[in-house]
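Training component of the fellowship. As part of building independent skills, the fellow (R.M.) carried out the full modelling exercise for a liganded target. The chosen ligand was glutathione. The inputs are recorded below so that the supervisory panel can assess the work.
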Amino acid sequence: MQLFYSPASPYVRKVVVTLHETGQTGDVALLNVSTTPIKSAPEILAHNPTGKIPALVRPDGPALYDSRVICRYLDARAGGKLYPASRIWDTLTLEATGDAIMDASIAMVYERRVRPEEKQFDDWIEAQWGKASRALNALNTRWMSHLNGPLDMGQISVACALGYLDLRHDARSWRTGNDGLAKWYDTFCECPSMQASKPD
Ligand SMILES: N[C@@H](CCC(=O)N[C@@H](CS)C(=O)NCC(=O)O)C(=O)O
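Fellow's submitted model of the complex:
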């Protein structure tokens, strides 16, 4: 299989961590591509009409996107331990919370990088940070017992989102006021799958 990939993408990182956690790194070749909301990489468009990464090309069916679909597919292929039936709705909601932090954080980056300077909208950027910030608070106050439990896709998504905040939004100091979450993340980051997928 082939994965359209970029090392800085937190959505791609979810997939790479999943490959490590399920022992499938040898089954997927990584194809490094550069794609933006206003300039989709043509090689991705052949497989994913949205032009976004990650996209997984399989020999036995159409390409898969987005990260939630790919991670669930890879987990099912390996026996299904990262989406446990006994807590599936919590796991999916936690995954969605991590993804929502990524969505807001990446939108902020695109607003500065992709939109012409005279069209950039500071209030909109702050509103995106409001979404990320409320999600961080929810994680720190309501989700710590799940985060500290057995590994599932919820934790992987949250960890990849926090890694992206460190990479692109360090100045926002997300750890301030989120001590429990910060402590959990520092420990989680030490696992081999997170170390192996660290962006440069
Ligand atoms: N919901 C998607 C989001 C993927 C996404 O936005 N990826 C970014 C890279 S981090 C991208 O491809 N951006 C290009 C674009 O928006 O066209 C997922 O979970 O895979």
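The panel noted the following from the submitted structure. The chain has a mean pLDDT of 97. The first strand starts at residue 2 and ends at 5.
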